[in-house]
Structure to design on (325 residues):
């Protein structure tokens, strides 16, 4: 079992759970029932799916199976080019009411027929409103006077010197303009990203350098203290050894030996006291980070220098450039 995203009759996308071996006809059966399942054509990723085709397993909310009522789409008999009668249909001309392959469509829609509205098979054509001045004509053109006009308007005195673009071409042009605009946005974001990446790297480097300095100072303090304690331990052990020897002499009651050892012990004690006086206590290196409390303020002031300044330049440049051309 797996989930399938689908849409029918331009409703909101929905999800259904079906068997992994299901065909399109099975999916239609589950959604529309036996009576209505034959009334729908199935499209996925721009391709027509036959009832016997396997249900795609990689559908998503944005890439879903689309069911369109056969009354609203081309007949299956039109899946072959009406002109060459051999190639697969790619486009439907709304004005000619004929289906073409890509080659025939490009061949026949030149000059006088270039304004015809051609849509890819499976894509719903643009719905055109009626002209208010010419009720039998549809609004098919966008004029550079910023009005939607029909063919009769285009040939009239009011618009004959104007530039009119077919709405179908305008739609494609706006898509290209949107792509260019997105690229421009991405490019404009790059300096911001690069600048803040550099700032973060600088801050990280300064933080690392400060921590390394602190670590070096603490190591010096620890080394100095350990050296002092080591020397004290050596002196203490030597004194303990002499005391042990003197106590051994006392225990023998040998007064001659005791008098001889007294002088030796006195000399040693005098030497030890001299060495202890000369032994300097470890000096601990104190440190502090100056102006650390002002660091946040400095960073805030730097960041305030980067700001977005809005300016109104009228309509989208890329879209306007397309219409004017």
């Amino acid at each position: 079992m797996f989930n399938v995203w689908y849409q029918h009759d331009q409703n909101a996308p929905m999800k259904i759970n079906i068997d992994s071996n299901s065909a399109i006809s099975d999916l239609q059966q589950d959604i529309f029932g036996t009576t209505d399942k034959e009334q729908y054509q199935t499209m996925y990723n721009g391709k027509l799916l036959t009832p016997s085709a396997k249900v795609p397993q990689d559908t998503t909310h944005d890439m879903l199976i689309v069911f369109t009522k056969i009354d609203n789409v081309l007949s299956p008999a039109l899946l072959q080019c009406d002109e060459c009668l051999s190639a697969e249909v790619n486009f439907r001309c709304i004005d000619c009411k004929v289906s073409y392959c890509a080659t025939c469509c490009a061949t026949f829609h030149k000059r006088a027929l270039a304004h015809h509205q051609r849509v890819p098979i499976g894509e719903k054509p643009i719905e055109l409103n009626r002209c208010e001045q010419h009720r039998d004509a549809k609004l098919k053109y966008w004029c550079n006077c910023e009005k939607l006009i029909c063919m009769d308007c285009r040939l009239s005195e009011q618009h004959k010197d104007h530039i009119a673009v077919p709405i179908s071409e305008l739609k494609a042009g706006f898509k290209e303009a949107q792509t260019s605009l997105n690229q421009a946005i991405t490019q404009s974001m790059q300096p911001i990203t690069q600048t803040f990446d550099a700032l973060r790297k600088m801050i990280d480097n300064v933080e690392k350098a400060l921590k390394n300095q602190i670590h070096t100072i603490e190591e010096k303090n620890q080394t100095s203290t350990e050296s002092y304690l080591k020397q004290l331990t050596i002196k203490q052990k030597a004194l303990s050894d002499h005391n042990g020897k003197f106590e051994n002499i006392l225990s023998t009651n040998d007064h001659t030996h005791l008098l001889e050892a007294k002088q030796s012990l006195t000399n040693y004690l005098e030497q030890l006291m001299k060495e202890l006086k000369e032994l300097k206590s470890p000096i601990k290196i104190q440190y502090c980070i100056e102006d650390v409390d002002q660091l946040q303020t400095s960073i805030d002031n730097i960041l305030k220098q980067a700001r977005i300044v809005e300016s109104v330049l009228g309509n989208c440049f890329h879209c306007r450039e397309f219409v004017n051309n």
In short: The radius of gyration is 46 Å. Residues 129 and 135 are 10 Å apart (CA to CA).
